[in-house]
């Protein structure tokens, strides 16, 4: 394997190792998927199946995703985050995800269930 391809392989494996874990889906590890794809695409003893340019492009794309560069470049519009039908939906979803990540219950209280039943959130 050429030196450049070896460098890309090492960079992909390092990126896979440092990919953040998802506390809401502990059984799904995107870093492990990157590692397996790298090993399948670039086994250490043989040539890469894709061109070096494609591998570099994949590495750059994954680094952009990990660093949230695309999110800063293309922010989500306010009307998407606060839809007219339920403006607090996503803030409630993020709050619930935070509770799950901390190991707290997300089951609605009796009062919340009554409010939902009668249509007032």
From TrEMBL:
EC number of the protein: 2.6.1.11
GO MF annotation terms: N2-acetyl-L-ornithine:2-oxoglutarate 5-aminotransferase activity
Pfam families in UniProt: UQCC2_CBP6 (PF20180)
Keywords from the UniProt entry: Aminotransferase, Transferase
Highest taxon of source: Eukaryota
Protein name: Acetylornithine transaminase
Annotated source species: Malassezia brasiliensis
Encoding gene per record: ARG8_1
């Amino acid at each position: 394997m050429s030196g450049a391809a070896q460098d890309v392989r090492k960079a992909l494996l390092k990126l896979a190792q440092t990919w953040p874990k998802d506390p809401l889906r502990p059984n799904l590890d995107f870093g492990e998927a990157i590692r397996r794809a790298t090993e399948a695409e670039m086994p250490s003893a043989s040539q890469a199946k894709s061109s070096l340019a494609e591998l570099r492009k994949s590495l750059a794309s994954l680094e952009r995703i990990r660093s949230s560069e695309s999110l800063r470049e293309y922010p989500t519009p306010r009307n998407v985050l606060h839809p007219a039908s339920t403006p607090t939906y996503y803030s409630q979803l993020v709050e619930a995800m935070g509770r799950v990540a901390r190991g707290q219950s997300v089951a609605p209280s009796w009062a919340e269930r009554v409010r939902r039943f009668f249509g007032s959130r």
